[in-house]
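Worked example 3 (structure in, sequence out).
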């Protein structure tokens, strides 16, 4: 009978020793004593608290980014008698009555200020987060067509899902913070993938043809602009050349008039007589130039008058 107190003491000491716990370097310990979360969080190292069931220790890494994958790509059908279990794809009905399989990846972290919600209210966090993502994907697919969801709308859908899931997580108080939601794939079911591929190829061909047409149009516009610029440059050069010639002729005429006036003043002859002499001289010089350019003989009837006057 005397051995009972010693055995009880050993059991009591062993039970109290279970209250020691170790926290890793990248972790913090959340201690729930008598069901109530204590603060602050315990840092890395050795610690002691009341043994279970009076206290419970949860080691948490607040800096790590956790990943949840919703949906999976359907694996090809095998010939095995009992094939291995495959993940069930998330199939959704689009607004235009088509089916699409989505695969989404959610990146999230725990929030220290809402750690109580994470520890107490939601024991099955990933399951509830999976339901929220599935509900958001259902709403997105029901309000859009297959062409938008399968191709052009993926980038916008990423942003919409991220904002939607952040709001739902805040509303349901999951105690986490969503960094980003990414759609890794939006694929049709296996039976219609060939048809979707044909549509995608046709769309790519149409886009390529449109791009080639735009490129050709841009080249034609560039060539037309360059040709127009060249014509404008030639027109400006012609205008400048003609303007220079006109100015030269005007300057020569003014110089000739000034010379006739100066000659009339120095010689005492009338200006009209000096102008007539100048016209005769210019006429003779002009005929000399013109007759020098004639390469064939001109036959003139002696009995008919031949007028060589160029000035009325």
């Amino acid at each position: 009978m005397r051995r009972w107190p010693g055995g009880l003491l050993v059991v009591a000491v062993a039970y109290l020793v279970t209250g020691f716990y170790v926290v890793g370097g990248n972790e913090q310990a959340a201690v729930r004593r008598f069901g109530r979360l204590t603060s602050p969080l315990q840092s890395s190292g050795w610690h002691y608290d009341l043994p279970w069931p009076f206290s419970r220790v949860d080691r948490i890494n607040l800096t790590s980014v956790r990943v949840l994958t919703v949906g999976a790509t359907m694996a090809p059908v095998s010939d095995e008698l009992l094939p291995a279990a495959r993940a069930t794809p998330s199939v959704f009905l689009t607004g235009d009555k088509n089916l699409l399989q989505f695969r989404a990846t959610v990146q999230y972290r725990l929030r220290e200020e809402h750690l109580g919600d994470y520890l107490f209210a939601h024991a099955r966090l990933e399951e509830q987060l999976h339901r929220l993502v599935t509900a958001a994907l259902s709403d997105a697919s029901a309000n859009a067509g297959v062409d938008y969801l399968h191709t052009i709308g993926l980038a916008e859908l990423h942003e919409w899902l991220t904002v939607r899931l952040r709001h739902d997580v805040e509303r349901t108080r999951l105690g986490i913070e969503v960094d980003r939601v990414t759609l890794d794939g939006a694929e049709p079911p296996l039976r219609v993938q060939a048809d979707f591929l044909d549509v995608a190829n046709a769309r790519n061909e149409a886009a390529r043809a449109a791009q080639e047409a735009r490129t050709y149009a841009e080249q034609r516009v560039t060539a037309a602009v360059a040709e127009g610029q060249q014509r404008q440059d030639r027109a400006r050069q012609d205008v400048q050349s003609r303007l220079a010639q006109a100015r030269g002729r005007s300057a020569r005429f003014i110089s000739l008039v000034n010379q006739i006036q100066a000659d009339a003043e120095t010689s005492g002859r009338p200006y009209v007589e000096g102008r007539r002499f100048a016209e005769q001289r210019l006429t003779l010089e002009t005929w000399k130039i013109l007759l020098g350019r004639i390469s064939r003989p001109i036959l003139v009837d002696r009995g008919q008058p031949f007028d060589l006057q160029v000035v009325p």
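Notes: DSSP finds seven helices and nine strands in the chain. The chain has a mean pLDDT of 77.
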